[in-house]
Amino acid sequence: MSRPSSDEVLELSVHSLPSPGGEVRPALLSSRLKLLAIVFICSLPVLLSYLAFYVVRPQGEAAFGELLSPLRPVPAASGTRLDGTPVPLASLKAQWLLVKVDGGACTPSCQKQLMLLRQFRLMLGKDMERVDWVWLINDQAPVDATLQQGLAKDKATVLRVDPQVLQDWLAAAPGKPLSDAIFVVDPMGNTMMRFPAQFDTAAAAKARRDMDHLLRASVSWDSPGR
After folding, report:
1. 86-88/157-160 β-pairing
2. I need a surface site. Which of 11, 102, 134, 219 has the fewest CB within 10 A?
3. Cβ partners under 8 Å of residue 80, min gap 6
4. Alpha helices in the chain (DSSP H)
């Protein structure tokens, strides 16, 4: 049998080596896509709530309340409690607010509106802990001691605030004073809706539907308490 030549013995077959990470990259890309998909799915409720809150809501038509556009952010100013303690208005953020503005003398009509505000908050049921009711006093008139006690018992927030600050933050209807409306302020401190200060039972039910809509739209990122 003939022996192979030396050239044939030395001849080697050379194969290309696999590219480093050539098989890893598709797997890594797939893992990243899966991770992004999981993050997107988990974030979807939050994204939808912001869509409803910022896009659908301002362009929609409320059942009773009047939507305000543009939103009015809380000013960098302070009010004072009835005992004179200063309170930054920004500290009211992180809760929905139902806001009534009136003078410290608070006529019987004013007191009736404050009572209505209290009852309206109670109508929200399990969501009422996400809403504070607020009386902002726009003058230096003294407040009746009995009224003060009742408001403290019902956990109302009562502050004296400079009238110009209130004008910058809240939005009265053209030609009407701020006392002619109940204002809705969102948890970020933006005034975004107003209701008539006086309305009957049927109108209150419509106002409740407006509030229910707002509270549902924000449930994924807004929780009770500050």
Report:
1. unpaired
2. 11
3. 86, 87, 159, 160
4. 6-10, 24-51, 57-59, 108-122, 145-153, 163-169, 201-217
Q: Helix 108-122 vs helix 201-217: angle between axes, to the nearest 10 degrees? A: 50
Q: Which of 158, 81, 85, 78 is nearest to 118 (CA)?
A: 158
Output the CA angle 136-138-139, nearest 5 degrees: 130
- Looking at residue 99, its amino acid is V
Q: Is the distance from CB of 102 to CB of 116 less than 8 angstroms?
A: no
Pair 218, 53: CB distance under 8 Å: yes
User: From start to end of 60-130, where are the E strands?
Assistant: 66-72, 78-80, 86-88, 96-102
Distance, CA of 9 to CA of 71 (rounded, Å): 86
Residues in the chain: 226
Within the chain, which residues score under 50 in pLDDT?
6, 8-10, 12, 14, 21, 23-24, 46, 50, 53-60
Instruction: State the DSSP H helix or E strand holding residue 131, giving kind and residue range, or none if neither.
Output: strand 131-137
The answer to whether residues 211 and 185 touch, using CB atoms and an 8 Å cutoff, is no
Tens of pLDDT, residues 25-44: 666 666 767 666 665 665 55
Q: How many other β-carbons are positioned within 10 Å of the β-carbon of residue 140? A: 8
194 CB contacts (<8 Å, ≥6 apart)? 65, 66, 68, 170, 171, 173, 181, 182, 183, 184
